[in-house]
Amino acid sequence: MTAPTQPPAATPGQPPATPDLLYTQDEEDLRSAVRALLADRADAPTVIAATESDTPYDPRLWEALATGIGAAGLLVPEKLGGQGASHREAAVVLEELGRSVAPAPYLTSAVVATETLLALADGEDGPAAALLAELASGACTAVLAVPFATPPSGARAALTSLDGTVRGVADAAVADVLLVPTAEGLYAVEAATPGVVVEPLVPLDLTRPLATLALSGATGTLLADADASTTAVRRGLLAGAGLLASEQLGIAEWCLTETVRYTRERHQFNRPVGSFQSLKHRMAQLWLEVVSARAAARNAADALATGSPDAPLAVAVAQAYCSGVAVHAAEECVQLHGGIGMTWEHPAHLYLKRAKADSIAYGSAGSHREAVAELVELPAP
Description:
Elements: H1 25-41, H2 44-51, H3 59-68, H4 87-100, H5 106-118, H6 127-137, E1 142-144, E2 164-170, E3 177-181, E4 186-190, E5 196-200, E6 210-215, E7 221-224, H7 226-265, E8 267-268, E9 271-272, H8 277-306, H9 311-336, H10 348-358, H11 365-375
Parallel strand pairs: 1-3
Antiparallel strand pairs: 2-6, 3-4, 4-7, 5-6, 8-9
């Protein structure tokens, strides 16, 4: 996949380019490939069974997604062994992962960790570039060792050195490399290194495992000093928050589609329950919210892809809105499915748990609303 053409930057005094919220043919082709793979390898019974096992991630699914489709290297330039695509294509992958709530370390490894390393890889040499090549090939996965709830504004290191504890790190239990930001700088630490203990937690969302990371005398490769580390971590968290909105969009779209389908098929008093006016209004309202969420998520992905100076604002707006829409859609899905929606066998609970967990990931909606207030310059009265 070749790198997409970037729109020219706005000249001083000229308005910025209009965001492109539509999907290209390449993006739709990518969507079809990912959706077909997930339908084959991550249908609802398979995902539910995975949550009941000790290995929630299917290595064959990840290999097919990362290597077969090449999704792991979408954000990595071709010179470093990646696909040379952009955040728009990565957003499409996350939409489909949201639609299937597939357990895969894509957001944490192929987006957040990769984007963090991209901020440090100036050329084709160096440890950051070498690690990027491994991530792009799907040979290994990496996670940024910060709590999953950390917003982009919280990029400051929590540890002073490679000694200490970090709680609530998403996908740490399945990662090969840990990117640990400290007061000294950003370290790449092998998960199997002596002095590293990863203790799995029991999360609300069983499709995305959390863990406590304990470091005691661990050793690693210093990738950047403290200042560069803070900048890189902020970039990684910003990309994670922005593209998380696409995952939330996928969750909401699935919930709306399945709810409409079910209410058409379920009959009471010899008529589909979806024909009752009260349910029509609820689903119509949800459709309006999903359409608005799509616009917000696409705007964030496009802003990240084009390097827009308004990217932090676009990301904050997308997260402030999309997290609530995903939760609302999942709640309506459970309620409007009636008794079957409350069962373990029906996948509705997976979407509600993922939506709830995502609503505080990389910052809550409230923290992003505060960011919007800080970023928007109100005109003087």
